[in-house]
Amino acid sequence: MIEAPWNARVYRNRHGRGTRTPMFGTRLPRYRTRSGMFDDMMAAQIRRLNDAWPQLVRPVQFAVEDVPPSQPAPWETEPDLNSQYFPSAHGVPARIVLYRMPIQTLATSRMDMQLIIRDELVERLADLYGRRPEEIDPDWGL
To answer: Which InterPro entries does the record cross-reference, listed alphabetically (predicted)?
Structure first.
């Protein structure tokens, strides 16, 4: 009985020259994309903030988008191109959205990107709850 090539344990590439395997291991740093690293950094900062302020962080949804929308929110007189918050309304929880491309453009290194992500998250949480960013994270802005 003939078996489909993709069901076989090892099969050749479409030209029949060799086996299909990744060029490098999936656990190597080259395999991770810039967007994946950005998501990991954001998740680490959210976990850190959740450990310190669980009552502020748990009811908020966090998201990452590539670029900001062309139309700013009606309540923002000067839109921030790095992040945006949406207050809760009509059963929809509050949301904080970070925009990956502008933040990556500002950052010069991985550490710099982590600090920018931290500052944006803290600033948006402070805006959402009407607090000063220094109350949420004393290291904000340093």
So the answer is: Zincin_1 (IPR010428), Zincin_1_sf (IPR038555)
Sign of CA dihedral 124, 79, 92, 38: negative
Q: What is the structure's pLDDT at 34? A: 84
Residues 6+ apart with CB under 8 A from 54: none
Q: Tell me the C-alpha distance between 55 and 121, whole Å.
A: 15
* Chain length of the chain: 142
Q: What percent of the chain is modeled with pLDDT above 90? A: 49
Topology of domain 29-136, CATH: Zincin-like (3.30.2010)
* Domains of the chain by residue range: 29-136
Q: Does 15 score more than 70 pLDDT?
A: no
Give the residue carrying structure tokens 């900001």: 68
